[in-house]
Amino acid sequence: MTIYLGADHGGFALKEKIKQVLLQEAYEVMDLGPETLVPGDDYPQYAAKVADVVNKKPDSDRGILICRSGFGMDIAANKFPHVRAALPESSDHAYQARHDDDANILVLAADFTDEDRALKIVHTFLSTPFAKEERYQRRLNEIDEITGNGQ
Q: H/E/C letters for each residue in 100-123?
């Protein structure tokens, strides 16, 4: 599993902390930007970079996107086929996003999520497998049907 990171200026500091921790834990991490703080940059470009690569391997790769509210990144990432971005507010919420809905991109709201809670959410998101129960898969298939993203 490769974990792709992206953040705008509002999420940059938290992205850097998460990247440092994940690299220390020997995860394969690809930072898709920015490399340095870019005051006033816009989130869509980073959401698109991460969502585009996760879209290519939605069952194995993961993304983490961070902006101030999380909403912009979440909306932009979910425009890509086979991307299921989620904006959980707790590790229990992240568990459900992975377990029930096979979310493959985690979105964090830097203005509303302190570093400790963010790291708990990240760890839960990365360690929780999709349950693959018939009802969960059926619902994902229904989403693919209504969006025209059938695999």
A: CCCCCEEEEECCCCCHHHHHHHHH
Full residue range of the structural domain in which residue 73 is found: 2-147
- 148: region left, alpha or beta (phi > 0 left; psi from -120 to 50 alpha): left
Confirm if 77 and 63 have CB atoms less than 8 A apart: yes
Domain tally for the chain?
1
| Sheet of 2-7, strand order | 28-31, 2-7, 62-67, 105-109, 85-86
Single pTM value for the model: 0.96
CB hemisphere CA count around 59 (13 angstroms) = 5
pLDDT in tens, 89-142: 999 999 999 999 999 999 999 999 999 999 999 999 999 999 999 999 999 999
CATH of the domain at 94: 3.40.1400.10
